[in-house]
Amino acid sequence: MTILPSVYYGTVEYWAALVQGADDVVIDIGENYVKRSERNRTEIMTSGGVMQLSVQLAHANRPRQPMHSMQIDYSKRWQHQHLVTIESAYRSSPYYDYYGERFTKIYNHHWTRLVDLNMATLEELCSILRVSVPRISEEYIVATTDDFDLRTKGRVSGFVAEPYIQTFSDRHPFAGNISIFDLVMCEGPAALGLLRRATLRAESQTEHAKGALEGISL
User: Fold this and answer.
1) Is the pLDDT of residue 58 over 60?
2) Which helix (H) or strand (E) holds 144?
3) Among candidates 42, 50, 13, 58, which has minimal Cα distance to 148?
4) What percentage of the chain's residues is helix, strand, coil (to nearest 5)?
5) CA distances (Å), 53 to each of 37, 133, 208, 214, in order?
6) What stretches of 108-197 show up as alpha helix (H) in DSSP?
7) How sure is the predictor about 45, in pLDDT bands with cuts at 50, 70 and 90?
8) Is the terminal CB of the chain with fewer CB neighbours within 10 Å at N or C?
9) What per-residue confidence (pLDDT) applies to 202?
10) Handedness of CA 57, 31, 107, 168 (dihedral sign)
11) pLDDT at site 110
12) Distance of CA 160 to the CA centre of its chain
């Protein structure tokens, strides 16, 4: 089984895991919110390079808050900032005219919970990529050793993305694991094939350290 957190757009790696996991994927919204993670952040390519966009949250510093209870803070105009930044970065991309308006509608809606905003972006992207929306669990899922778990903090990623032409590729090197939004705006329908061909591998820091020690043992 592939276990995913609820995320704001999600990285290319996240979506490769979702696509390759097929019908055995679940999104866990019963886990505790993790600060400084893609649960409320995403990275896009801009004229100045990779930029991070963050959804403002209420009481984000309180410990051990379930994801499904996280409330969005509208005291700052983060939606306007995200929308303007995305338009500036991708209006010249091949597929912005096809898909841009779908996401504008999401930003014009007042979402109360972070998971509802994340679900809106998930459903829109699943529609564009023509893949099924994964099932949702409101209860925390205990992973087994056979599960592919992308919730883990400190996970060492072995993800390898297939290169594609990004906006501002004449100014900046390829960024292979930024927001799925970038891949969709640059590749459109071809994005699904890139996700299927991507190399996925994840291991814990303990496994990574063990492997390193085995590699240097006599």
Assistant:
1) yes
2) none
3) 13
4) 40, 20, 45
5) 11, 24, 30, 40
6) 114-129, 180-187, 191-197
7) very high
8) C
9) 54
10) positive
11) 96
12) 15
